[in-house]
Each structure stands twice: as C-alpha cells, then as structure tokens.
C-alpha cells in the first residue's frame, strides 16, 4: 500500500506543477495553457498505465478539459479590468465552435504518432510569435475581419487548436493586433477564446475515445479526469497572477523565454514521434 501511494507522488507533483505554470501562462499571454499541459501529460501518462498508442489523444483531450477552467478564470480576471472585447468574442464564437468540432473529427482519423507530429509542427510555427514579439505588433488595418474571411480565420483557428489541445490565443492575439487592437485588449479577449474552443473539443475527445481499450486509469474517453482535476486545481490559482503580470510587466522578455520553451517542446515532440 505504501509503495502504491508513493507511485502517485511523482505524477501528482508533475501535474500540480504543470497546472501552476499553465494557469500563469493562460493569464499572462491569453493562451489556454495547452502548450504546457500536453507535454506534461505525455510525461505523466505512462505512470497511469494504459497503452502508449492512446497517450497522445488522451493528453490533448485532457488538455482541452483543463483549458475550459483556465480560460474562464483568465477572461473573468481580464473582464474585471474592462479589457475584454465581448463583441469580438460573440462574432468569432460560432466559427470557433464549428472549427473545434471539425478538429476533433480529424483527430479521430489519425494515429498518436501523427498527432505528435502535428503538435510539434504547430508549436514550432507558433513559437516565432513569442520569440519575435514585434510580429504581433504589426498593424495591417483598423477593421476586424468579417464575413467569409472571419469564418475562415476563426474556423481554421478552431480546427488547429482542437488538434493541438491549445486555446488558440497566439493566433487570435496576432489577428487582433494586426487589425489595430491594443496588445492588452487582444490578450484579454483571446483569453476567452480558449473556453469556446475547449468545451466542444473536450466533449468530442471524450466521445471519440469512449469505449477504447488501453486508456490510462481514470479516463472518460480521451479525457483523464484525475489529471485534469489536479491541473485545474492549480491553474485557477495562478491565472489571476498571470493577468496581473500581463498588465504590469514588460511582456517582451517573458515572451522570448516562453518562445524558447516552445522550441524545446517542439523538438521533444519530434524526437518522441520519430524515435531518434
């Protein structure tokens, strides 16, 4: 019994730490925290047993579940500061939800290895926006996209985000700042996109994984409840701290550090997928 209890200490500590980091990043950068949660889950899931071929889908599905809470906590904190543009959120919401559902359907058709490669490529591309912060400060127009352009951008964002298990904040912030919105307003508004994407995504991953054999202990489909609860319990504490940091600290140095972290995570995922 003692050994069994001790075997839980390492994964529990790792998940709690991931939750602390993910919550802070969610508040600071307007992201959902999936960049932190997915790699942490892939490290921890072997300790929760199950078949290795199911780990990637479970990591991404569980990440989606944690993003719901982190996103709502983050956007609430931003809203108290009057920084959230709810008009943009309402305009984007239907397309984000549709895109998220499409992403889940695509995830159901690919292997865990292919999903790792998709995650690695996506993270590597998105790291550029953190390493070179001025990319997000380019202003191309003073009007937000609408009509077919909005449907394409928001729908595509939903697809990519649900496939990667992220909240889509990086792309959303970039689009908003390119359209003349301030960085603080863009971060605050993007924080709410995570829940709009993650709710259908996590439900979808639970459905497509339901009844699968070899899932880690405590999983409902591809959502691992013990891991999600551990991560969320910490992320709700640090998301407001990230919000305060976003409004009170120079963001560029922190962005570059986080960008370097994303490059390392991308390489880790490439190594894991390609086994070199």
Task: Kindly describe this structure.
Helix content is about 75%, strand content about 0%. It has about 280 residues and is mainly alpha-helical. Strand 1 and strand 2 (about 225) form a beta hairpin. The N and C termini lie far apart (about 40 Å).
What labels describe this entry?
mainly alpha; 76% helix; 276 residues; single chain
Estimated share of beta-strand residues: under 5%
* Uncertain parts: 1-5
Q: What shape does the CA trace take?
A: globular
Range of helix content:
over 70%
Q: How many strands, which pairing sense, and closed or not: the largest β-sheet?
A: 2 strands, antiparallel
Whole-number radius of gyration? 18 Å
**Biggest sheet: strand arrangement:** 1-2
What is the SS-derived class? mainly alpha
Instruction: Indicate the mean pLDDT.
Output: 86
Report the span from N to C terminus: 38 Å
Strand element count: 2
Q: Helix count, per DSSP?
A: 10
Query: In sequence order, what are the helices and strands, one letter per element?
Result: HHHHHHHHEEHH
Q: Topology, pairings included?
A:
Layout: H1 2-29, H2 34-44, H3 55-80, H4 86-107, H5 112-131, H6 147-164, H7 169-178, H8 183-208, E1 219-220, E2 223-224, H9 225-248, H10 251-274
Antiparallel strand pairs: 1-2
Helix pairs in contact: 1-2, 1-3, 1-9, 2-3, 3-8, 3-9, 4-6, 4-8, 5-10, 7-8
